[in-house]
Amino acid sequence: MKNIYKYIVIVFYLVPMSIIGQANELSVFDNLIHKTWSAEGRWENNGPQFKQEITFQFDLENTIIIADSKGFIDKEQTKFGHRNHGIRQYDKASNTIKFWEFDVFGNVTSGTVFAEGKNIIYQYKYGESVLTDMWEYVDESTYNFKVGTYNNGTWEQIYLNTVFKEKIK
Fold first, then answer.
1. Looking at the record's lineage, which domain of life comes first (predicted)?
2. What is the gyration radius of the CA atoms in the chain, in angstroms?
3. Please, which residues bridge with residue 129 across strands?
4. Model confidence band, residue 3 (pLDDT cutoffs 50, 70, 90)
């Protein structure tokens, strides 16, 4: 009977610890959670307009992060609505944070996420290139946002350079 109690106690300690461990692995997102972030800009060389609002939430007992994004939902950029649904999850097997971003056009982008200090860096394959999205921490309510080619801590090319600000409700 003592052994049964031992196993019950172990299970009650290990299960919450594994959940806490995963939440800690996602702590790079802590400042983004339960907030809506808004940005506007233009892609390089006076390209198409960029406009986005993203809300981040924990889900599944803090083991994943859901990113709900609004943006242009038509090629003409006249309709603004729910554009992307993203998932970020710590993958124990590879010891990395992985992400998947599903869009209204039927595409999915996937890659990895890591931190450089308080900066959040997404890397993913786009066609033949590896692109980087960086949320560069400025303060609790501001991030510089860049999309481009980033290698060994250096931007080789920047396609988008704008600012995400916390949207005050």
1. Bacteria
2. 19
3. 126
4. low
